[in-house]
Amino acid sequence: MNKLLTKKTNKTMNRDLTVGDPQTVLWQFCLPMFGSIIFQQLYNIADSLVAGRFIGENALAAVGNSYNVTLIFIAFAFGCNIGCSVIVSQFFGAKDYCQMKTAVYTTLLSSAVVCALLMLLGFVFCDPLLAQMKTQPEIMADSALYMDIYILGLPFLFFYNIATGIFSALGDSRTPFYFLALSSTSNIAVDIIFVKCFHMGIAGVAWATFLCQGISCLLSVVLLLKRLAAIRTDKKAALFSSALLKKLTAIAIPSILQQSFISVGNIFIQSVINSFGISVTAGYSAAVKLNNLVITSFTTLGNGVSNFTAQNIGAGIPDRVKGGLRAGLRLVWCICVPIVLLYFCFGRYLLLLFMDAASAEALLTGKQFLWILSPFYFVVSAKLVTDGVLRGAGAMKAFMAATFTDLILRVLLAFGFSNLFGAIGIWCAWPIGWTVATGMSVYCYRRMHD
Q1: Which of 74, 169, 351, 409 is within CB 3.0–4.6 Å of 366 for a Cys-Cys bond?
Q2: Contact indicator for 315, 18 with CB cutoff of 8 Å
Q3: CB 385 within 8 Å of CB 416
Q4: Nearest of 333, 305, 302 to residue 320 by alpha carbon
Q5: 191 and 46 in contact (C-beta within 8 Å)?
Q6: Residue whose C-alpha is closest to residue 173's, from 38, 28, 297
Q7: What Cα–Cα distance (Å) separates residue 348 from each residue in 107, 237, 360, 424?
């Protein structure tokens, strides 16, 4: 009876990625994930948009400057998401629901400890880090205030990311989409109310994100616990397992290192950008939000490929992985076409959304950034999908090697090219790093399947 109930529960609430045509299954699974990340990015875009339109260029620069520090915290939350998602996918594919639940509980407990430590470190070291980035005196106070409020909301960031990772591992990509669609659109409204009506300035932007992300987090965690309770097991799942924690960290730590090292690299790059003045910083802050919207979307689709890979490996049918990779590449390249055309041809108008009275230098900076980077989205998207397969298969060394190569090249070239070509030289470092790292990821994937 329990097995029958479990089967019905899984069929109605979750999705098995081990059956059906790989392209159809993957596209149906990933497209809601793509929608989810669009709405999730609206949080950061809304902050910059409201700051730039309703407060001023300095406020836009302050949000963009702080964003590179927030990426370090996002890296840890993202790593917990990936570690749990891959392991839960493998247990779900193998129909081992008791271990699957234990993996979830272990992640929640260990992530709470990591989050508390990060909050402590954040309050102590964020101001010195902003100073080390050569943050201009005009935006230092706003950057620090934004960061302090952001750190208070770290528990919401962590547990929301874990919840969405688990939903995806269970084959449910629609539930996170519904939560994000509601909370991100609400965030835009609250941003404007706090800034325009209550005149809260940069603090209003930060508190709006705190409030809306908190509500989204609480709702998703409550629904997740109900979803897990509906899945019956023959015995009660343990609340913690040191053995599973080791498996989780084996996946999570490389992902955390990848994202955090990229964030640290971006902080070094930001220090170079800040040396060119407020207008260049503001233009970059607007353009990089548009760029990160695309890159984060591709990364999320790569996570979907990781879930597909992990479930099929867990079910003992690794031959489906190659079909999943091909389907993932078709999906991201279909998305690349309109995005590249939009950024390359209409980037000016998108940038003006962030700037009420943009200086000519700020606008030119943003346009140059988009013109140089957007054609190479076809390249970096192939890397992120291939990375998804490597991560889902547990090939973390290959994944890390390609990622660090990209980071090191971008940082070194940004410093070198900025001396030769000015700010435009910094933007040229991105495509070179992406191209070399993509070649490495593809090579590692082919070696894995030889």
Answers
A1: 351
A2: yes
A3: no
A4: 305
A5: yes
A6: 28
A7: 43, 54, 11, 17
- CA-wise closest residue to 50 among 149, 188, 143, 207: 188
Which token pair is 366? 């943003």
SS3 content of the chain, % helix, strand, coil (to 5): 85, 0, 15
* Amino acid, single-letter form, for residue 32: P
Tokens of 438: 């993509």
Cβ neighbours of residue 443 closer than 8 Å, sequence gap 6 or more? none
CB atoms within 10 A of CB 25: 23
Residue 277 region by backbone torsions, left for phi larger than 0, else alpha for psi between -120 and 50, else beta:
left
Helix (H, G, I), strand (E, B) or coil at 18: coil
Tokens of 127: 């101001």
Calculate the CA dihedral of residues 27, 28, 33, 39 and round it to 10 degrees: 110
User: Given the structure tokens 């030769």, which residue do they identify?
Assistant: 420
CA gap 108, 106 in Å, rounded: 6
In contact, 353 and 363? CB cutoff 8 Å: no
Mark residue 56 as left, alpha or beta (left: phi above 0; alpha: psi -120 to 50; beta: remaining). left
**Residues lower than pLDDT 50 in the chain:** 1-12
Share of the chain above pLDDT 70, in %: 94
- Evaluate whether 175 touches 224 at the Cβ level (below 8 Å): no
pLDDT in tens, 167-222: 988 888 788 778 877 777 888 889 889 998 898 999 998 999 899 889 889 989 99
For residue 200 the two structure tokens come to 């809260």
Structure-block tokens of residue 245? 């924690």
Q: Which of 414, 184, 183, 166 is nearest to 276 (CA)?
A: 414
pLDDT in the model for residue 60 = 74
